[in-house]
Amino acid sequence: MTLYLLRRSGAGVLVLFGITLLTFVVFFALSPDPAVTICGKTCTPERIETIRGVLGLDQPFLVQYGDFLRGLFVGRSFGVGENAVQCAAPCLGFSFQTNQPVLQMIAARIPQTVTVAVGAAVLWLLVGVSGGLLGAIKRGTVWDRAAMLTALGGISLPNYFLALLLQYVLVVRLQVLPFPDSSIGLTEDPGGWFGSYLMPWAVLAFGYASLYLRLTRDTVLDTLSENYVRTGRAKGLPRGLLLRRYALRPSMVPVVTLFGMDFAGLLAGALITETVFGINGVGKLAADSITTNDQPVIMAVTLLAALLVVVGNIAVDVFYTLLDPRVRVSQ
Amino acid sequence: MTAQGTHGDATPLLRVDDLRISVPGREGPLEVVHGLSFAVDVGRTLGIVGESGSGKSMTSLAVMSLLPPGAAASGSVRLRTQEHPGGEELLSGGTARLRALRGDRMAMVFQDPLSCLNPYYRVGVQIAEAHRAHRGSTRRQARTLAVDVLGRVGIPRPHQRVDDHPYQFSGGMRQRIMIAMALVCEPDLLIADEPTTALDVTVQAQILALLSDLQREFGTGMIYITHDLAVVSQVAEEILVLRGGHPVEHGTAEQIFSDPQQDYTRELLDAVPRIDDPVPARGGTR
Amino acid sequence: MATPVALIAETQSGSERAPVGAAPRRGVLRALLRRPQAALSLACILLLVVMAVFAPVLSSLGGWSPYAFDPQAIDADLGGLPLGPFGGAGARHWFGVEPQSGRDIFARIVTGARVSITIAVLATALTTTIGVLAGMVAGYLGGAADQLISRLMDFLMAFPALIFMIALLSALPAGQRQYLLVGVLAFFGWPYTARIVRGQTLALKARDFVEAARSSGASSSAVLLREILPNLRGTILVLSTMSVPGFIGTEAGLSFLGIGVVPPTPSWGQMIAASVSWYTVDPWYFVIPGLFLFVTVLSFTVLGDHLKSVLDPGGNPS
How is residue A91 annotated by DSSP? Predict the structure, then answer.
């Protein structure tokens, strides 16, 4: 197992290299000179040169990429002499917009994104999986049809549209919920905290729950046609046990697999949700930095997202060997 | 159709009268089993023989009330139980009652043990399931029982093997596990649906011997379903031949083999390879 | 790198299990039309396509170009709020106007339809072409080609696509944005198609008629084109139909974030983005494009579902 993990991690690191390299290339080759942007309106060529020097933008591409990597692992410095700024590992640079260390900017916003992601995940797993299971068992009944129709709507509805719709109806019109305010801490005001995150959770979960409902239902239906289910029934096992061991458990594999990948990729999904609801998380940071072309932040967020996806994939692979006894790591 | 007389006046373990089974067809229900009647006694084996499509599997499923959704059965299937010594009607049984009987008083062994065992759970758990469900044994008690039963069906090193998963066993061993699962509550009736068809000949013989031994030990009444007359001759005292859902011939094993009445039965007998048959020329049709 | 994840995703039931076999085209259409949901979806899609194709004609019917400002339709004192209920909808502007600019929403919707559907269809065509080619080559040739293509697929699928798309598009200049979008969408989309096609090709390769063709001396390309490709027709059809709504949604999402279609070219996603500042007082501004998006994606999804069940009756009915 450890050998397998090592191999997969090695491959993962390679993938991360590839992704960061590509992202770096994109910025290097395609972006307008950031020094100009930073310099602003009242600018002189000397100032631009100074900025470029400090940020290392006058170096050839490979040197810049090398500096970036070095910063990640051991730290680096910007500029020379007394004005040099140290940046400890892992160094993600400084924001072009605010000059803050990017690492801290991201770290400060992780709790909000995690809250949105975890809350939505719990909601969508509960609703999606149980809905799919029920739909499969009660196939063809009114419950099944209703669930499937709702799920169809869920995967077709763009989540920013739903977000606006919910906010309009619940906050503006009916006034049952306040405008989401992500600065409220859980401990200071649990009610307000909950009320703020309720809509983002619902919006994010609706789309995913629909996907998971359809997947679970399909998988369970496939499982129910397996021979071993008939064996279970032949033993006269009680309904609950039959459902748990012969319907649900065998169907979990594709669901858990997908969940691993989805949760890791949730950073992108949270991006839109956070923007619409004004949640001050990493996603919103990414969205904002895109409009201002704040390269270090975009680089850092891309790296983080890629890291999550790679880790998620490895975690899912490992989980998979635990989930399905027929697959043991022997490759 | 003279077999009913052999069971005398005592209530047989299982009595089936005029069983008809229909399945949903393109233009409405299609009858696939047309009025079967037979009985099984304690400690005795009835062999049901027929080609695929003869309705033999459907019959067994109907007895266990495991028919697929949409299929319907009519007639009478009476099982002798402690609560109903005169025979309890299964076709009109309530869900809860049937569930209580299945696995406990009547059990089934299926054809392809690989697909019939839950790949996600250990063998010991699957064997113990029925016992825990019907007898309320604890996990430890059930596990001890599972080890014991595994040994009884001839699995070597049962203490270790009880924690293995189905994929870790060979085909013959898996069938033994299926048998273990079926017998763990010592049912009165055991239905074996082509239990050796998916296995090779040497293993086949072992499984047949195992079934006979266990039947002698527990006094189980058995229905043995197969397409292979050669096999059934080794296990059954009474044979029912089916064709297209119709009973063709029904008699004791001696009667069927020594003096078959129907042409179809004779054809089946002829198809059984015998050691003194001439070897067919190569390049024959498939 | 045939990771268990990749393997499991391949055997995922339902959405990923595509049918094998060449279904007769006319039979499929008739079978679809017999199902009310599918027929309705086809009708909606047809309507949308007509709307997209004839967008300029329809705009002029409504009397407004999508880029023309109408200062009379908005109330400058209220900050540019459209005059009249329903966001200013009426005889003059059928769907109302955009706040502040006073642009005709109907014209922008139909033009946006043209933009979104064009991008999605082109992206689908490109993705399907690349995906089918890559999948067939990888599945049929095996060996080094398969290794190379599969690893490439794994790499691309490990990308945090949305984030990278955002990073990529934000760095690129705004010109020719629509072609760029098509390229980017196809760049990240083809592995999913390729993976399924590869699986199907592997299954087909083992079939008798392929063996026969190979042993009769046909070249690889001949076998691929004449034996394998025709049998992938059903799969390709379902995959394409299911890709379109995904691309429409992604393009709308990207436009919503401001890096998709660049103003003044209208796009439904972009309109919703613009509506965020106005939704409290002018909900119609976001409801109308949102509904159009919803109906479009829904129609394609329903059609795709029914196509799948028509072409693969052995699957699970929904």
Answer: P
Locate A84 and state its tokens: 């040099």
Q: Does the CB of B72 have a partner CB in chain A at under 8 Å? A: no
Contacts (Cβ under 8 Å, ≥6 apart) of C151: C1
Q: Are C106 and C93 in contact (CB under 8 A)?
A: yes
SS3 (DSSP) at B189: strand
Q: What ipTM is given for this predicted complex?
A: 0.86
Q: Which chains touch B (3 or more CB pairs under 8 A)?
A: A
CB B79 within 8 A of CB B88: yes
**What confidence score (pLDDT) does residue A209 get?**
93
Confidence check: pLDDT of C315 > 60: no
Q: Looking at this protein, which amino acid is placed at residue C220? A: S
pTM for this prediction: 0.81
User: Could you report how far apart the first and last alpha carbons of chain C are, in Å?
Assistant: 34
Tens digit of each residue's pLDDT (9 = 90 or more) over C42-53: 999 999 999 888
Measured in degrees and rounded to the nearest 5, phi and psi for residue A92 equal -105, 15
Q: Which residues of B touch A226 (CB under 8 A)?
A: 115
Question: CB distance B133–A326 less than 8 Å?
Answer: no
In the complex, which subunits touch A with 3 or more CB pairs below 8 angstroms? Answer: B, C
Among A residues 26-45, those touching chain C with beta carbons less than 8 Å apart: 26-27, 30-31
Mean pLDDT of A59-78: 80
**Cα-Cα-Cα-Cα dihedral of C166, C172, C177, C183, to 10°?**
-70
A268 confidence band (pLDDT: 50, 70, 90): low
Contacts of B101 in chain A (CB under 8 A): 236
Residue of C nearest to A157 (CA): C294
Looking at residue A144, its amino acid is D
Helix (H, G, I), strand (E, B) or coil at B24: strand
**Location of each CATH 1.10.3720.10 domain in chain A:** 102-325
Nearest Cα of chain C lies from the Cα of A14 at a distance, in angstroms, of 10
- Residue C25's pLDDT is what? 61
pLDDT-wise least confident of A74-88, A243-257, B143-157, C94-108: A74-88
A222 has a chain B CB within 8 A of its CB: no
Q: What is the b/e burial string over A144-181, where b = at least 16 CB atoms within 10 angstroms of the residue's CB?
A: beebbeebbbbbbbbbbbbbbbbbbebbeeeeebeebb
Q: How many CB pairs under 8 A join A and C?
A: 170
Look at B103 and A325 and tell me if their CB atoms are within 8 Å. no
Query: CA-CA distance, A315 to A144, in Å (whole number)?
Result: 33
DSSP bridge pairs for B46 = B223, B238
Cβ contact C256–A155 (<8 Å): no
The A residues from 141 to 200 touching C (CB cutoff 8 Å) are 148, 152-153, 155-158, 160-161, 164-165, 167-168, 172
Superfamily of domain A102-325 in CATH is MetI-like (1.10.3720.10)
Is A34 within 8 Å of A57 (Cβ atoms)? yes
Residues of B in contact with A250 (CB under 8 A): 118-120
Q: B21: part of which helix (H) or strand (E)? A: strand B14-25
Q: How far is CA B266 from CA A199, A231, B194, B248, C75, in A?
A: 76, 35, 21, 11, 98
Inter-chain contact B66–A233, Cβ cutoff 8 Å? yes
Query: Collapsing DSSP states into helix, strand and coil, what is residue B124?
Result: helix
Is residue B137 within 8 Å of B128, Cβ to Cβ? yes
- C82's enclosing H/E stretch is strand C81-82
**Nearest residue in B to A240, CA atom:** B133
β-bridge partners, B247? B242
Q: What φ, ψ does residue B252 adopt, rounded to 5°?
A: -75, 165
* Chain C residues with beta carbon closer than 8 angstroms to that of A26: 167-168, 171
Q: Rg of chain C's alpha carbons, rounded to an integer?
A: 23
Nearest chain B residue to A235 by CA distance is B103
CA distance C51 to C69: 22
